[in-house]
Amino acid sequence: MINLDEIATQLESTNSRDRLLALVSLREASPEEALPLIKKVLYDEMLPVRSMAIFALGVKPTPESYPLLVELLQTDEDYGIRADAAGALGYLGDNRAFEALVRAFYEDDSWLVRFSAAVSLGNLQDQRAKALLLEALDSNEPILQQAAIAGLGEIKALDAIDKMLNFANSEDWLTRQRLAEALGNLNLNKSISALNFLAKDSHPQVRDAAEFSLKQLSDL
Fold first, then answer.
1. Residue 184 pLDDT
2. For residue 2, what pLDDT is reported?
3. Of 70, 124, 131, 142, which alpha carbon lies 20 to 30 A from 15's?
4. Ramachandran region of residue 141, left (φ > 0), alpha (ψ -120 to 50) or beta?
5. Which domains does the chain carry?
6. % helix, strand, coil for the chain, step of 5
7. Phi, psi angles (nearest 5°) of residue 150
8. 10 near 18, Cβ under 8 Å?
9. What are the Cα distances from residue 216, in Å, to 29, 133, 182, 183, 198?
10. Which parts of the chain sit beneath pLDDT 70?
């Protein structure tokens, strides 16, 4: 049985490890029980504690989670915290976050925040994100390309497959892996052909992702 009073006390410990462990133990609490305890360390002096608190807001959704995360995304001075907030908005799955995430993608000066925003736009599975994700696909930054590929797969952008397949021979194996994963969401003959190609890739994680996606498509 979870002891909320004990967790509350642990969150006030001067030892940051205690505070982190307290946040971990909140996984058994309901969102309503967890929220006031999460808020105790949302502006903690230690960034890892803040990061975990922000993540908890995303996976323990309450009506307060959305405005708290948007405020952090738009105003926090630390780019890592802004990126965490963008990521948590994706976990939250609230489509009201669409505009805030788009703004972060276009206006934030940190590639990490832009990456998290693109990933979360895919997680929201909102078709309005397609134009932005296609733009990210044309970026010169591999990490943004990877986020775009994943996002286009999430929103099942079938008409983007030709652009996505341009990355089947990418020098970056992580990009090829993201492509193999994304193709599992696009039930097309082109996807199956590309996945058969990626199943023979030189990197084991690409091969595994391709095999998994092929099975996923065959189960459909």
1. 97
2. 83
3. 70
4. beta
5. 1-62 (1.25.10), 63-155 (1.25.10.10), 163-220 (1.25.10.10)
6. 75, 0, 25
7. -60, -45
8. yes
9. 33, 23, 11, 10, 15
10. none
